[in-house]
Design brief:
Order of helices and strands: EHEEEEHEEE
Radius of gyration: 15 Å
Helix content: 10-25%
Length: 125
Amino acid sequence: MQFASIRIITDDLDGMVAFYERVTGTTARRPAPVFAEVDTGGAVLALASPATVAMLGTAAPTPRANGSVLVEFLVEDVDAAFERLRGVLDDVVLPPATMPWGNRSTLFRDPDGNIVNLFSRPTAP
């Protein structure tokens, strides 16, 4: 078994694709008008409209309803990434800070309210 992706269902696919392209500095693949993949070389973040899960009926995921999952990206320099994005972030949850376990992180919300964590691991002493 191979991990393929995490998929976020959104009712603003174009807006979310543009946001994550800006965050990651990559261009999303758009194999269909209702679906996109942001591939950063590690895991894939899939973004899709509700049409991709409509066959699930009332069991389908609901856009803008995530309350338990963070989207995380390992970056080389958290502070530089935050400065690059500062002007386009509407909801900064945590400005760059060093966590008690040594990671450097900044957290913010994407346009659908999902928390995004950009982090770097501590360098060896």
